[in-house]
Structure formats: C-alpha cells, structure tokens
Specification:
Elements: E1 3-6, E2 10-13, E3 17-18, H1 32-44, E4 49-51, H2 64-73, E5 81-86, E6 88-90, E7 101-103, H3 107-121, E8 128-131, H4 140-152, E9 159-161, H5 166-175, E10 180-181
Parallel strand pairs: 3-4, 4-5, 5-8, 8-9, 9-10
Antiparallel strand pairs: 1-2, 6-7
Helix pairs in contact: 1-2, 4-5
Length: about 180
C-alpha cells in the first residue's frame, strides 16, 4: 500500500478506513465480530489509517465505535494511526430522541473528551485528534492552545480540523500547527 505524509511527519496509508458506518448513521450497527474481522483484515492488507469519533455510536451506546476500533486494533496498535474526533456531543437535555449533536469545544470538555477517548481506544496516545466541527462559542486560538498542551503532555501527537473555514483554520494554525483538514 502506498503511503502519504500528513503535515510534516505523520505517515499513513494512502487509503484510510472510515469507521463511522460500523455503528452510526448507516442503518443498524455491524455485528461486532464481523467489524473486528474487517478492521483486522484491513490492517493485514496494509491499511494503517483508521478514523473514528467519540460520537459514532447508538443512542444506547454512544461511544461504541471508539471501543470497537480500540479493541480490534489493539494487537497492531504500534503499526497503525488512529484518528478520532472531539467537539460534538449528544444533547441529552434537548428532550429529543435520538439525541441531536451540538458543537462543544470548551477547553474543559476537550480534556474530558480526550481522556474518554484514550480509555475507550485502550491507548496511551491519540495519533490524530480532529476537532469535529467549529464551535461558534469558542475561539479557534483557545482550541488550538488546548491542542498544543495535549501534544506537550503526550496525550495526542497531531491534530486536525473538520469542516473549518479558511479564517478559522489560519487562526488555529498560528497557535498550534494543524496536521490535517477533513
């Protein structure tokens, strides 16, 4: 499998595997045994880039995807790049079901999210940590400063942003270099 370099030094397979469909958004979740088999087979075939998010799950098990990805890739963790995302949360107070997703990138929420993701993924670091959506209530500089702190602490090694406009991206990048944009 060919590789690509994201940012300055994050080497990933040219084709990555987006894992959302195993447990979120495209009908019933994939049977766990089948999903684990597929993830492990992808790694055997040379895929090294796997993408998940803390909100890829079901209303009953909102973090199912990270748990699945972490368990399936544990035997090859040192050979793969795991990307996950923060910055969206289920609005449990909305009174709606299924729970709507709302942006939330407050620094204290980011810290809770990274700790939860590390635990669910069963790893000591996240290779690429994406802000899932821009939060209009939190400045990009504030988010980027938290990312710089998490990199310094060894909890993440790289960070990225999903669905950001140019101004937001430039402002964030000025504080902590952004490795990837989705």
């Amino acid at each position: 499998m060919q590789t690509r370099i994201l940012g300055k030094d994050l080497t990933v397979s040219a084709v990555g595997l987006g894992c959302m469909g195993f447990s979120h958004a495209y009908g019933a979740p994939t049977e766990k045994k089948e999903a684990v088999r597929l993830l492990r087979r992808a790694a055997e075939m040379g895929y090294t880039f796997f993408d998940t998010a803390e909100v890829y799950g079901t209303p009953e098990d909102p973090h199912a995807n990270e748990q699945l990805v972490g368990e399936a890739l544990a035997p090859v963790r040192d050979q793969v790049v795991i990307a996950t995302k923060f910055g969206l949360r289920f609005d449990m107070e909305s009174g709606k079901f299924p729970y709507p997703l709302i942006p939330d990138s407050r620094p204290e929420v980011i810290r809770q999210s990274v700790e939860g993701s590390l635990k669910r993924l069963g790893t000591d670091h996240i290779d690429l940590y994406f802000q899932h959506r821009m939060d209009p209530k939190v400045a990009p500089e504030e988010v980027a400063q938290v990312m710089a702190d998490l990199i310094r602490e060894g909890k993440i090694t790289h960070w990225g942003i999903s669905e950001a406009n140019e101004d937001y991206l430039r402002r964030a990048h000025a504080v902590c270099p952004v490795t990837a944009v989705q």
